[in-house]
Structure formats: C-alpha cells, structure tokens
Amino acid sequence: MAVEQAIRLLEQVVRDVPIGTNLALFRLLWAILCGAFLQSRGAIFPALQSLGLKRAQIRRCSQALRKGVWTIDALLQPFRAAVLAQGRWQPCRYEGFHPVAGDITAFWRPRLKGRIGKFFHPLAQRAVPGVGFGLLVNVGRVGNVRIPLLRLILRAEKGINQKGLLPRLLTS
What we know:
Elements: H1 2-14, H2 21-34, H3 36-39, H4 44-50, H5 55-67, H6 72-86, E1 89-91, E2 100-108, E3 117-121, E4 126-142, E5 145-155, H7 162-170
Antiparallel strand pairs: 1-4, 2-4, 3-4, 4-5
C-alpha cells in the first residue's frame, strides 16, 4: 500500500515534465525514496544499478539530471499540491501565525570550478568551497507528528556565500 502511494505521488510530481525526462526523473526519485543513494554514498550510477536498471536506462537518468528540461520548482509544486490534496498534513498555527523554517546547506566540493561559493562546514569549523542551497519549509503536522512540507529550494548563484544567500532566502 505505501509503495503504491509513493509511486502515485511520484507520477504526479513528474507528470508535467517532458516525455522521456519524466521517466528518468521518476527513476531517480524512486532511487532516493528506496535509499539507494545511501548505499552508494550519493553516486548516481551505482544507486540506479542497485535498482536493477540497465546501462542505457542509467545513462538516460544521468542525462535527464544534467541536461533535462525541468526545474526543481516544476517538481516541487505538484508535490506540494498532492500532499495538500490528501488532507492529512495540517499547517501548525501559533497565535494566528503559520511558521516557516529555513536553513542553508551546501554540497562541499573543494576542487569544483564554476558555480561555487564558500559555506560553513561544521566538521572543518570554517567556510569551505561548495554549492550552496537555501531550503524553506512550512511547519505542519500529520496527526501528532510534526512534518515539514518543502516550500522552496534556492540554489546560490556563482560566488554567493552563506551571508549572501540568507537575505535571498528570507525574502523568497
């Protein structure tokens, strides 16, 4: 039952993405949900291979991820709509306010060239080169469990660091 619900949700998420790219993104998202990326430590090819996909299918997924015609917002909005349509997720209210939580994170890549800034790395205890992201969520509940509902993923522009990304995130 849970697997069928997850598949239906992923189908709704990729429904409006161009044909070909939608199937490849579906497979990538399914690999994330199955935990295949945890086992492969984030490597795309081994993660997809662990699902039993053939080489040609894995290459199509990689191409869709890198060069496909899609945006994260085009995937995020149908996901939010599907979650809200189920009616189980309810926003938290505190004295009439609906809280929104935000955070900044990065994929640290010291040798990467191009779209990169400097972001604080807790293990290094200093700013390290990486690709930064700002995340915003609506705070809500399903039953008695507090669950965030992803609202926005904001990628830092080239050369933007943590201090530069924060104002953009807060005004979005």
